[in-house]
Amino acid sequence: MTQNLPGLFTERMKSLLNQEFAAFLASYDQPVTYGLRVNPLKVAREQFLSRSPFALEPVSWCVNGFRYQDQERPGKHPYHAAGLYYLQEPSAMSAAEALDAQPGERILDLCAAPGGKSTQLAAGLNGQGLLVANEIHPVRVKALAENLERCGVKNAVVTNETPEKLQERFPQFFDKILVDAPCSGEGMFRKLPEAIEDWSPDKVTECHLMQQDILDAASAMLKPGGTLVYSTCTFAPLENEQSLVDFLTRHPEFTVVELPEPGWFAPGQPDWANPRCEPLGKTARLWPHLLQGEGHYLAKLQKSHDADSSELPEKRKDKRAAKAKTAPAGRKEALLAWRAFAEEAMPELLAEFADESAFLLFGEQLYYSPLPGFDWDKLKVARVGLHLGTVKKNRLEPAHALALASTPAQAARVASYASDDPQVVRYLKGEALARDGANGWTLVTVDGFSLGWGKQSEGQLKNHYPKGLRWL
Ligand SMILES: C[S@@+](CC[C@H](N)C(=O)[O-])C[C@H]1O[C@@H](n2cnc3c(N)ncnc32)[C@H](O)[C@@H]1O
């Protein structure tokens, strides 16, 4: 495919890489590397390996990451629908790994769709703390929400905002922020040849300017002492080393810090920015001719503990608290509907979702928020925490997200199937299944992992697998 590469791109890479250029160019004739990341919110790494239907080879920089051969098609396996893993190219696994999410933290993934890194960060949080996963593009945000649901994430808020708008709402709020920036995508030319069509020198410049705005907004939302990871999937120095130097010049409160295992990747290039900047040697370049993965860039920054930590103005805080107290119409009925559903179909959840102030009703949709009392009114929000269900005529119809975030042990009725049972594919295609059992909402599982809801009635399990997710 080397003949399809843009001439101006190859010329620039030749002058940057010198003797290494031949090996770099040859990497375009090597096969694309495919990866999957096991989702520990659903299954422990070793447990998955003991039952994996695919031949897997570990990715050294991501504890749950593996390479597989294309013909394995893990996206077509029911385990994918059950959220046991996320398909993610190996190099792309490095960014969230560098941010190192820990339970209880507040984390922002500012450019998040379709959710590869968000699902990885959520796994690090392990259900405790908050993930705000933001995507500016209104169509892409849908895939982001679906992927977080499939992976059983309970504590994520999905927003569809500009970084500037979020900045107004979350000053110095997050412990850690990931900026997986929109970029010219040069590192994806091998995997997604359509990225070649989109590329131009003007696009590189446009992305560089956009990255500056996004990084400025991120810096305003990070707490003093907080960590910011910046990543791209491009080789252009203007979008990598130069974007960082320009940011560091405007923000001397940030320093570049060492990545967890600097030896895994090639260093960033202090000379590829103007002015030359020595700390860029601590950033990383993932080259397709030096590792089994596509092209990426990665930098970890820390905000000084002394950076201005002035709190939100008191007035604004008061207003929020006051708003949170006003109960929207229908809320009481929605909570009663939830309780009636949970008592009957998932009694254990009554204790897990016990904080009254965390229930949020948007129209007919009931959610359980990881940030009770926060006023989401002024933001475009696709989902706040766990979607519990739809309230219809004072009854709760459980959400797909609730099924995917629950275990069979929590459900009163379970329809369990083995992964090689043809009924599983029939369920994923949206068909009703012939089955005897007690009437009512029933959790459908594959090898003991939740797949979705069915409603048992008179010898039949009616299919409630979401229409938009059904296998064709
Ligand atoms: C590299 S992709 C993110 C991939 C994602 N982090 C993942 O791991 O699945 C960059 C994202 O930034 C979004 N984006 C584009 N312009 C943006 C802007 N001005 N501010 C924030 N995000 C933007 C794009 O729509 C795209 O989804």
From TrEMBL:
Keyword RNA-binding appears in the UniProt entry: yes
One GO molecular-function entry: S-adenosylmethionine-dependent methyltransferase activity
One protein family per Pfam: RsmF_methylt_CI
Record keywords: Cytoplasm, Methyltransferase, RNA-binding, S-adenosyl-L-methionine, Transferase
Database matches in InterPro entries: Methyltr_RsmF_N, MeTrfase_RsmB-F_NOP2_cat, MeTrfase_RsmB-F_NOP2_dom, Nol1_Nop2_Fmu_2, Nop2p, RCMT, RsmB/NOL1/NOP2-like_CS, RsmF_methylt_CI
Comp. bias regions, Basic and acidic residues: 303-316
Region (Disordered): 303-327
One of the GO biological process terms: RNA processing
Catalytic residues of the enzyme: 233
Domain SAM-dependent MTase RsmB/NOP-type residues, every copy: 24-304
Similarity field: Belongs to the class I-like SAM-binding methyltransferase superfamily. RsmB/NOP family.
Name of this protein: Methylase
Protein source organism: Brevibacillus parabrevis
